[in-house]
């Protein structure tokens, strides 16, 4: 957008469901293997194995709910990260404080068409914010960068570099 009065709509991002599978793949595999082994034959360790698998299932359910409740919002002036299940927290980064960006794709993210966008800022409480599970075809960095530049111009903030 051009001009000093440019107003941007709020962008809301939730991690993709496949990000849960990518993050929790070892625990998911161990839990399924434990249930499978416990179902094969009855031994003295079967009840212990089932108990461990049930605890792992509860952990997986909690982590799934946590991921589904994560929300990243990019407004005109701030990047807001809300997270938590029983206790919700919000982290705020003023867009004029953002100094750098990074996109990363792990092997499994590449296979599933996802990426992690890291935002680096001069904010004391949140110097780095990782936005996980972003679809690969969304150019999130360009959207945020445009808003960062707009806010820096609006506030009269200029970067000085000694190159």
Describe this structure in words.
The protein is α+β, with helices and mostly antiparallel strands and 163 residues long. Helix content is 43%, strand content 26%. It contains four helices and seven strands; from the N terminus they run βααββββαββα. The strands form two sheets. The protein has a four-stranded antiparallel sheet. Strands 5-6-7 form a three-stranded antiparallel sheet. β3 and β4 form a beta hairpin. The longest helix has 24 residues. The two termini are 30 Å apart. The N terminus is likely disordered.
Strand content: 25-35%
Number of helices: 4
Question: Describe the biggest sheet?
Answer: 4 strands, antiparallel
Which regions have little confidence, pLDDT < 50, spanning 5+ residues?
A: 1-5
What is the terminal-to-terminal distance? Answer: 30 Å
Helix proportion of residues, in percent? 40-55%
Q: From the helix content, strand content and strand pairing, which structural class follows?
A: alpha+beta
Strand order of the largest sheet: 1-2-3-4
| Rg over alpha carbons | 21 Å
Identify the overall geometry: elongated
**Kindly state the mean pLDDT as a whole number?**
91
Pattern of helices and strands:
EHHEEEEHEEH
Number of strands: 7
Provide a compact summary of the structure.
The chain is of the alpha+beta class and 163 residues long. Helices cover 43% and strands 26% of the residues. The protein is built from four helices and seven strands.
């Amino acid at each position: 957008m051009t001009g000093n009065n440019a107003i941007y709509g709020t962008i809301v991002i939730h991690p993709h469901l496949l990000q849960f599978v990518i993050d929790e793949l070892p625990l998911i595999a161990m839990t399924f293997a434990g249930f499978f082994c416990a179902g094969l034959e009855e031994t003295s360790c079967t009840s212990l194995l089932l108990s461990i698998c049930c605890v792992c299932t509860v952990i997986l359910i909690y982590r799934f709910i946590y991921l589904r409740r994560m929300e990243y919002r990019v407004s005109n002036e701030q990047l807001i990260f809300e997270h938590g299940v029983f206790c919700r927290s919000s982290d705020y980064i003023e867009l004029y404080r953002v100094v750098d960006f990074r996109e990363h794709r792990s092997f499994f993210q590449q296979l599933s068409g996802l990426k992690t966008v890291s935002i680096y800022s001069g904010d004391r409480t949140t110097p780095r914010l990782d936005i996980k599970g972003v679809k690969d075809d969304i150019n999130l960095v360009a959207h945020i960068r445009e808003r960062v530049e707009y806010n820096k111009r609006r506030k009269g903030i200029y970067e000085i570099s000694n190159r």
